[in-house]
């Protein structure tokens, strides 16, 4: 069994103790190497213990978890953010392909997060890209956000406004991007729908999520179909037709 040396950076004592208890009971592969309650203490602890994993609170007394990671020069660890519900921070974390747990943390979700830590290979360059993208998205008040797309070979940072269309392929999703070849990502279309719907994307069909800004025309025959500016024709399901047409009106 691979041992995961872990530190918890959390300023709420009860939340930290709850995490420690759950890790001890549900995650025997985790070795807790220490804990801290601030950015300053966390940096010192990371340098002292060289952990494999940070369970990192987003909001700390002297800054944020993002501030902490940004200040660490050598990022040879994995990160799972732990946060109370914060819509703005969660959007940035999701778009950056970083993992997170919502407070109060549930045992099954913690177990899943630790399991993913064991399976997912990340390197320092990837972590830097993810954190930088997350911070950029947090600091960018406009809709011009970026998304991290991970494949087995590459990490892509893409402007959301350049995503044309997402197409389901079982538990994978094909992403079509302006000026680029399609990218296959091992996430479901539902996951992309949850991330992108607030940025002008609409799921017109069980297998298709489209960027409304790329709609060229709509053909009314039958349940209808959409022609995108890329030239691709996408079917519209009968149950989505009315809400899709209303969505089109809202951007016209």
What do these coordinates show?
The protein is an alpha/beta fold. It contains eight helices and 17 strands. It has a five-stranded parallel sheet, sandwiched between helices. A five-stranded antiparallel sheet has the order 12-11-10-14-13. Strand 11 (172-177) and strand 12 (183-185) form a beta hairpin. The longest helix is centred in the middle third of the chain and has 16 residues, at 124-139. The chain starts with a strand and ends with a helix. The mean pLDDT is 91.
Walk me through the topology:
Elements lengths: L3 E6 L3 H14 L3 E7 L2 H11 L3 E5 L1 E2 L2 E2 H7 L6 E6 L3 H9 L3 E4 L4 H13 L4 H16 L6 E5 L4 E5 L3 E7 L2 E6 L5 E3 L3 H8 L4 E5 L2 E4 L3 E5 L5 E4 L4 E3 L5 H11 L1
Parallel strand pairs: 1-2, 1-3, 3-6, 6-7
Antiparallel strand pairs: 4-5, 8-9, 10-11, 10-14, 11-12, 13-14, 15-16, 16-17
């Amino acid at each position: 069994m691979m041992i995961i040396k872990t530190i918890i950076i959390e300023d709420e004592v009860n939340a930290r103790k709850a995490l420690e208890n759950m890790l001890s009971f549900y995650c025997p592969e985790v070795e807790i190497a220490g804990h801290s309650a601030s950015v300053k203490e966390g940096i010192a602890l990371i340098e002292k213990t060289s952990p494999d994993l940070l369970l990192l609170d987003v909001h700390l007394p002297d800054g944020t978890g993002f501030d902490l990671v940004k200040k660490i020069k050598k990022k040879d660890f994995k990160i799972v953010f732990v946060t109370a519900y914060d819509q703005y921070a969660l959007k940035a974390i999701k778009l950056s392909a970083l993992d997170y747990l919502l407070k109060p943390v549930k045992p099954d979700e913690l177990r899943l997060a630790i399991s993913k830590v064991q399976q997912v290979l990340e390197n320092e360059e990837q972590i830097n890209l993810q954190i930088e993208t997350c911070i950029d998205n947090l600091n960018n008040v406009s809709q011009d956000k970026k998304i991290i797309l991970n494949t087995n070979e590459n990490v892509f940072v893409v402007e959301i406004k350049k995503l044309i269309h997402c197409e389901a392929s079982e538990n994978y999703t094909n992403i079509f991007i302006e000026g680029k070849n399609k990218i296959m990502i091992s996430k479901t279309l539902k996951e992309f729908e949850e991330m992108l719907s607030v940025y002008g994307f609409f799921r017109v069909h069980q297998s298709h999520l489209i960027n409304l800004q790329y709609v060229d025309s709509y053909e009314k025959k039958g349940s209808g179909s959409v022609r995108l500016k890329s030239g691709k024709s996408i079917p519209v399901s009968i149950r989505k037709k009315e809400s899709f047409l209303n969505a089109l009106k809202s951007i016209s």
